[in-house]
Amino acid sequence: MGMAWIVLLLGAGAIIYNHVYRKRMYREIDRLEEWKINLMNRPVPDELAKVKQLNMTGETEQLFERWRQQWDDIVAVKLPNVEEQLFDAERLLDKYRYRQARRLLGQIADGLRRLEEEVHEIIHEVNELIGSEEQSRAEIEELRAAHREAKKALLAYRYTFGSAADLLDVRLTEAEKQFQRFAELTEAGNYLAARDVVLTLKEELGRLTSMMEEIPKILGECQTSLPAQLAELADGYREMEERGYILDHLHMERTLQEKREKIEQCLAMIHELRIEEAKQIVAELKEEIDALYDLLENEVLAHQYVQTEMPRLSGMLQELAAEAKETEAEALFVQQSYHLAPSDLEKYRSIEKQLHQLQKRFFLIQDRVAEAKTAYSLLKEELEQLVSQIDLMKEEHEQFRTMLQTLRKDELIAREKLDGMRKTLAEALRLVQKSRLPGLPEPYALELAEARRSLQAVAARLEEKPLDMPAVDQALEEAKAAVERLYERTVEMIEQATLAERTIQYGNRYRRRYPAVRKGLEEAEFLFRHYDYEEALRQAVAAVEEVEPGAFDRVQKLWQEDNSREQ
């Protein structure tokens, strides 16, 4: 029973699917039928009718015939074929041959797409032809007006175009012939070729108009402005030579001649209407002429520099020589008192040598200025180098003098440090005295002797002549370490001795009751009397802590409170 139901359901499903699929394919046939009708109703005949208003000859006639034939072929052959195919598709559907019907419908859609493109192309080409005719008619009038204006301007202001006027005439006459050519092509119905003539004319007249605007300006530069500047440069150059300037290195006459030749070259280009090239040359000339003005101005500025710097440098070198003499005397004096490193002496000899060389160079420049055979700009360069070398030498000299002064300053600082360390040592001994210790442990006595010896070593170094400051500094470092170590040891020793004494006193309360404590304290007292305060403290703390844990903390606390009260 169940199996029968499944078969029935499957059968029903197949019928429903079949029905839906057929319906969809019939809808596709309707859509393609509508597309075919739409193509047939496109306004191609109306568009072709517009072409008939043009001159139906030549190119236009050929194009019209081609478009009309194409449209006739579409309407009479290609669209009826589509109709036939749609009918075939319907027949296949009726016979349930879905796969073949679907393939055929795909082919019909491709065919209609191609026909759509063909129709679109015809309409586009028709519009292009009609549009180009309308546009050309409008633009040719504007171009005639522009041509008239150009001819009028050439006639009225011919002199402003110089030798370029003849070629401008020729080009404008050539352009005029193109108007005639346009009329002939339009008459012959060759509207697309006529459009090309319009575009060529537009470009040519644009070029000629632009040239006619630029030529008078460039001619003015080449005939008036630039030659005037070159003449001005030549006058300035001669005047400066008369005033004693040395300008041979500028090769001014040859350079000016080159510029004049460039102007001639520019005029020849204008004559040939090579305006862009001429503009480029004018721009280059302007830059080059500015550079020549700069060169002459540089010489004037260099002359002023030499005039003001020579006396100033002479004064600087004299001042440096005087300072060097003072430094020499100072160095000799310092050498008697201090030991100077070979590198320091070498530095001073180098400064002396440099000074002689700089003086020599200055005198050479002085002679060249007097001879008046060298350009001021070259002399200025040499003087600038000399100035920077003098500045460097002054810096080195200053460093050397500072080093000499530092030596004296270092000696005073060393003596101050020695005094400070002596005070620290005296303070340590005062603390020992104040603490009334029964005596000093041997290691401490040795450290004290070492600290005293190190201070004597510094004092001895400071008495040496010449004074060797690196050796003094070395002795100072050693003494500082020894004195600081001793001071710390003193404070530590006094603290240990005091705490040992107080712990013994604190432990006395347990002497009678605890024989072990008595023994420990007696041993601590023995050590204390023999100046071993560290061990005495250790023994005393061990004895007391055995019977009273934390006793040493209390002793320490009481001692700290007494200390703070004393302070």
Structure description:
Negative regulator of FtsZ ring formation; modulates the frequency and position of FtsZ ring formation. Inhibits FtsZ ring formation at polar sites. Interacts either with FtsZ or with one of its binding partners to promote depolymerization. Residues 98-153, 256-337, 369-410, 445-496 form a coiled coil. Residues 1-2 are extracellular. The protein folds into four domains: 8-136, no CATH class; 158-273, no CATH class; 299-410, no CATH class; 436-564, no CATH class. The chain has 15 helices and no strands. The protein has helices at 2-40, 44-51, 58-94, 98-156, 164-187, 191-242, 252-271, 275-337, 342-371, 376-435, 442-463, 469-507, 515-529, 533-547, 551-566. The model has no long low-confidence stretch (mean pLDDT 79).
Choose one word for the global shape: flat
Oligomer: single chain
Radius of gyration: 59 Å
- The residue-averaged pLDDT reads 79
Strand content range: under 5%
InterPro entries: EzrA (IPR010379)
Pfam families: EzrA (PF06160)
Function: Negative regulator of FtsZ ring formation; modulates the frequency and position of FtsZ ring formation. Inhibits FtsZ ring formation at polar sites. Interacts either with FtsZ or with one of its binding partners to promote depolymerization.
Keywords: Cell cycle, Cell division, Cell membrane, Coiled coil, Membrane, Septation, Transmembrane, Transmembrane helix
